[in-house]
UniProtKB/TrEMBL annotation, chain C:
Protein name: Sugar ABC transporter permease
GO cellular component, one term: plasma membrane
Family according to the record: Belongs to the binding-protein-dependent transport system permease family.
Pfam families to which the protein is assigned, alphabetical: BPD_transp_1
Compartment(s) where it occurs, according to its Swiss-Prot or TrEMBL record: Cell membrane
Length: 430, 318, 286
């Protein structure tokens, strides 16, 4: 029975057989965990708000499988109607070839306008004068701390928040004092020491704090400062050598069990809130003097379809606009909503610890704007493992800084395979 | 085919003398029947083979000389650039090294383990079906399912392996353990196949050889060393060859157990994984094609080396 | 055809000390082999919180079928199951048909260029999606078959190994059987279908079983050629598509068992044939 059913569906897929008179919008996202639950709740709300649109959502594993599959689907002209991407990946995703531009008029019809967004953020989505990425949020790397532990070590200020830290010495002093009072057998801080993504994000944050640069404005020259990089790498490494980290130990679980600190993305907020912890979250400490923490944005995109248009396309616009505008639920996942009217609502300002780190959006450390950058992009893939090798002690920090520079030199000279241009030639950069 | 007749079909053995007798008749029939239609028998297969094996190979060769990307748009000719870059790409050598390291660990372990399991199952008189079932059943699981199971078993903190053996090893997150974890998973998952080959070969060893040895007073150990192992030489060659070819193509287990990452400090990124990354993540189809062709040459060399070894052994009249 | 692996009917002999020791070792080793599957099964009956508990434990404290229920309610698993079935059945049928014809053609018919073609086909033994994945993908992309059943099925339908196995078998069939029929006036095709195919049934079964297992479990090619989660097969879907609530180990184990169980059940019932089939196809590689 199933066999003959399948034969009938050859070439189209079993799912296409489900007949449906309504407008069907196929939507791919990369949200799992708490984000996934929030997204589903928002989609359900949308389904109630507009029952004429049938949202068919699919969640793929985050990271490379997602981008690979999205690119291949767009290249093979079998793309979904709506997708989600990281802002940093948009430039390398060959707008115009793998992505279609948004119809700004159509977005306005559903209530989303440029003036409702941080101008810089909106500009990141514009390439060759057209909007390719509609920002949904800003997400940042945070220093989570347990108030119950820090209180015992006298590390909380009068406002009940962690005392400010402005230098590496102060930071390690904080760790030392926390370690003295914490539960034995646990690490003092979770640092994702062997995760190439987190280590890369932390590196970007602290390198930016030091005022380090990547390339000159024309993207013709590498300005990577190996001394500053070495300083950052030594700083990360010292957490391991001073015994504040158990390499490989699961970070979130340790924190829930009583470890005083963990550095995580803001998406861990629902996890820790769900565990009913007494905790706070600040941007990564400005140990090198200035505020900066790694930040990225989720954005809606229209994967390329040669016959894009009609009711399905309009449905995709309506859905994206709805989710962007109703992002309070999304903020529960720890993200800072990109739609600024949400930020000024009383409901948002009451959210903790979100209200403690909302200022992070003004001190964003981002990757350089080149085609090879972006979440799990070529740059992160190349440099992430190198940073890990330093933090884990397989290679010396100064040597690693040199390796990073040579990688950057090579990448800057390389051509974007999608259009054959280097970063200096403006390979698909706004 | 180099093994003794028992491996093959009964029909084949029975036929040999008959064949000689009817050789003349065959020739006559062949002429009369007009065998030129034979091509039609192979046509359907050859069509598929040409489309999905030969054409991709030729296409791969062509693409490897271009800067083609994933979109399928026009590409331009770049000569030997891709090959030059590949051979100077430390990451490629690294990935090749990882695949080779994996092969080096897996092949001897699986061969020995498969042989021991087969000897065990062959020599226990009761419940043969049960041993066969237990040792072979992992092989029936999809690679991703087996990998997911071990990913969970190996995860520090929540995994049962550390718990059961009283360890606290960072199997999946430390570069010195990651490949080991994949090797252990692979042993469990695929040893059943080689086990079955050995078991079949064991059952094909004529009983009278053992009887004769027993009469000569050989004990069990001697019988294994002097009868069983020599009789298993060919099958061992086959097991090793198949395992080398399969292990060099490491991909499924590694990516699933490492959550589609290249592993801690790139420790588990295999050649296949790196090639696909270049093609589908960096969109460099031309470069990835060049690596595919390099890999094809490596595989071909291994396969030809085995043929050459076999022929040499036959000629030396083993 | 006598199959390579046979259950030998030996008379029940009394337990000797060496048999007792061997049996005990057998039990211990079997336990190690079954343990991961047992752990997966037990975990699929835990709650998600219990499945990720530190420290872990083997037996569920509270037995619950929520993971299995959730699998049916939230996932695409029924789609994947159907897709797997469609793909495996199609691949197996096509492979059986074309490789039987080709094996016979190469073994028993004459045509121009046969030797050269056979050589080329043997060369094909060295090519797999792992070796030539990227060019194969672009070929299939050019044909417009990315994200279709055809794209998943057809590239799995040209296995040189299966042709070689059947070629070896057909070479061993007595020519007189065919010749008698020729003299009676039967044509090449009739001989093939009425005499050769029935004789080859055990070999065909072996090839069919092996192909089905390989195709059901295939990950790499379906992974490369499908992007649409609705079109994925079981191994691919389980590995790449997480449901929207993160890694849920209990559900992942339940899904994995669902992908693995059909073959395991079939194996229990057809153990002898499958063992013979796998051994036969494997051994033919010599």
């Amino acid at each position: 029975m199933a066999g003959s059913f399948g034969f009938a569906a050859l070439g189209t897929g079993a799912d296409a057989l489900a007949s449906n008179a309504r407008t069907r919008v196929r939507y791919w996202n990369l949200f799992s965990g708490g984000d996934g639950a929030n997204m589903i709740a928002m989609l359900d709300a949308f389904r109630t708000a507009d029952p004429d649109i049938d949202v068919k959502d699919s969640t793929l594993q985050w990271g490379n499988p997602f981008y690979t599959k999205l690119a291949m689907a767009a290249a093979g002209n079998r793309a979904p109607d709506l997708g989600v991407m990281h802002m940093g990946r948009v430039t390398g995703f060959s707008p115009g070839r793998l992505l279609d531009p948004w119809d700004v008029g159509l977005l306005a019809k559903y209530g989303v306008r440029e003036q409702d967004f941080n101008p810089k953020l909106w500009q990141r989505g514009i390439i060759d004068g057209k909007l390719y990425a509609l920002p949904l949020d800003i997400h940042v790397q945070l220093c989570f701390y347990r108030k119950d532990v820090l209180k015992k070590a006298d590390l909380l200020g009068d406002d009940g928040r962690m005392i400010p830290v402005t230098s590496t010495d102060e930071w390690f002093d904080v760790l030392k004092r926390a370690k003295a009072v914490q539960k034995k057998g646990l690490q003092t801080i979770g640092l994702w020491t062997n995760d190439q993504n987190f280590q890369w994000w932390f590196f970007v944050a602290f390198y930016t704090q030091l005022g380090g640069r990547w390339f000159n404005d024309d993207n013709t020259e590498v300005l990577f400062d190996t001394d500053k990089a070495t300083q950052v790498l030594e700083f990360l490494r010292r957490h391991v050598t001073d015994g504040y980290v158990i390499p490989g130990a699961p970070t979130g679980e340790q924190f829930v069990n009583g470890a005083p600190f963990t550095w995580e993305g803001n998406w861990s907020v629902p996890v820790f809130s769900g565990a009913k912890l007494d905790y706070g979250a600040t941007p990564l400490p400005p140990v090198f003097g200035s505020q900066a923490t790694h930040a990225e944005s989720h954005a809606f995109v229209l994967p390329h379809q040669s016959d894009r248009g009609g009711a399905t396309n309009e449905g995709a616009h309506e859905l994206a606009a709805y989710v962007v505008k109703h992002a309070l639920q999304w903020a529960a996942g720890g993200h800072i909503p990109a739609y600024t009217p949400t930020l000024s609502t009383a409901a948002y300002q009451k959210l903790t610890p979100q209200n403690e780190y909302v200022g992070a959006m003004d001190h964003q450390a981002t990757e350089p704007k080149v085609w090879f950058a972006g979440s799990t992009g070529v740059l992160a893939q190349d440099l992430g493992p190198v940073v890990v090798s330093s933090t884990m002690g397989s290679a010396r920090p100064d040597k690693v800084a040199g390796t990073m520079k040579s990688h950057l030199t090579k990448l800057l000279a390389s051509k974007n395979p999608m259009d054959g241009r280097t970063a200096a030639q403006g390979g698909a950069v706004a | 085919m180099t093994t003794s007749a028992h491996m093959t079909t009964g029909a084949q053995t029975a036929v040999a003398p008959a064949r000689a007798r009817t050789a003349t008749a065959t020739a006559t029939v062949r002429r009369r029947q007009g065998f030129q239609h034979g091509g039609w028998f192979v046509a359907p297969f050859l069509a598929l083979f040409a489309l999905f094996v030969i054409w991709p190979l030729l296409r791969g060769v062509y693409l490897s000389f271009t800067d083609a990307n994933i979109s399928g748009d026009d590409a331009s000719f770049v000569g030997l650039d891709n090959y030059r870059e590949a051979l100077n790409d430390p990451a490629m050598w690294d990935a090749l090294g990882n695949s080779a390291y994996f092969t080096l660990l897996v092949v001897p372990c699986i061969t020995v383990l498969a042989l021991l399991l087969a000897l065990l199952a062959h020599n226990i008189e009761r419940g043969k079906w049960l041993w066969r079932l237990c040792f072979f059943v992992p092989f029936l699981l999809p690679s991703t399912v087996a990998a997911n199971m071990f990913q969970w078993l190996f995860t520090q903190g929540i995994g049962l392996i550390n718990e059961t053996f009283g360890l606290d090893t960072p199997w999946l997150t430390d570069k010195s353990y990651a490949m080991l974890a994949i090797v252990i998973e692979t042993l469990w998952w695929t040893v059943g196949f080689s086990f079955l080959l050995y078991l079949a070969a064991l059952q094909g060893i004529p009983e009278h050889l053992y009887e004769a040895a027993k009469l000569d007073g050989a004990n069990a150990w001697h019988r294994i060393v002097h009868i069983t192992l020599p009789m298993l030489r060919n099958i061992t060659g086959l097991v090793i060859a198949l395992q080398i070819l399969a292990s060099l193509q490491l991909f499924d287990q590694a990516v699933v157990m490492m959550d589609f990452s290249p592993g801690p400090e790139l420790a588990t990124r295999s050649f296949v994984q790196y090639t696909l990354e270049q093609g589908f993540t960096s969109y460099r189809v031309g470069y990835a094609s060049a690596m595919s062709i390099i890999f094809f040459v490596i595989i071909a060399v291994v396969a030809l080396a085995r043929m050459w070894l076999l022929r040499n052994r036959e000629e030396s009249g083993r | 055809m006598t199959t390579a692996v046979q259950v030998r009917k030996s008379p029940r002999r009394p337990w000797t000390p060496s048999q007792i020791v061997l049996t005990l070792i057998g039990v211990a080793v079997s336990a190690v082999f079954v343990a991961p599957i047992a752990a997966a099964l037990l975990t699929s009956f835990k709650s998600e919180a219990e499945a990720a508990a530190i420290p872990p434990h083997w037996l569920p404290q509270d037995w619950t079928a929520q993971a299995w229920k959730g699998l049916w309610e939230t996932g695409n698993i029924t789609n994947w199951f159907v897709n797997s079935l469609v793909v495996s059945v199609c691949v197996t049928s096509v492979v059986l048909a074309v490789s039987a014809l080709a094996g016979y053609g190469f073994a028993r018919t004459e045509f121009r260029g046969k030797t050269v073609l056979m050589g080329i086909v043997m060369g094909g033994l060295m090519i797999s999606p792992a070796v030539l994945g990227v060019p194969l993908f672009t070929t299939v992309q050019q044909m417009g078959m990315v994200d279709t059943y055809w794209g998943m099925i057809l590239p799995q339908c040209a296995p040189a190994a299966m042709v070689y196995i059947l070629y070896k078998f057909f070479q061993g069939i007595p020519r007189e059987l065919e010749e008698a029929a020729f003299i009676d006036g039967a044509g090449r095709w009739r001989v093939f279908f009425t005499i050769v195919v029935p004789l080859a049934r055990p070999s065909l079964a072996a090839v069919g079983i092996f192909t089905f297992i390989a195709s059901w479990n295939n990950f790499l090619w379906p992974y490369m050629v499908t992007n649409n989660p609705d079109l994925m097969t079981m191994p691919n879907g389980i590995a790449t598509v997480m449901n929207s609530y993160g890694i849920q180990w209990a559900q992942l184990m339940a899904g994995g068992l669902m992908a693995g169980l059909p073959l395991i059940v079939v194996f229990v019932f057809f153990q002898r044939q499958i063992v013979a089939g796998v051994a036969h196809t494997g051994l033919a590689g010599q």
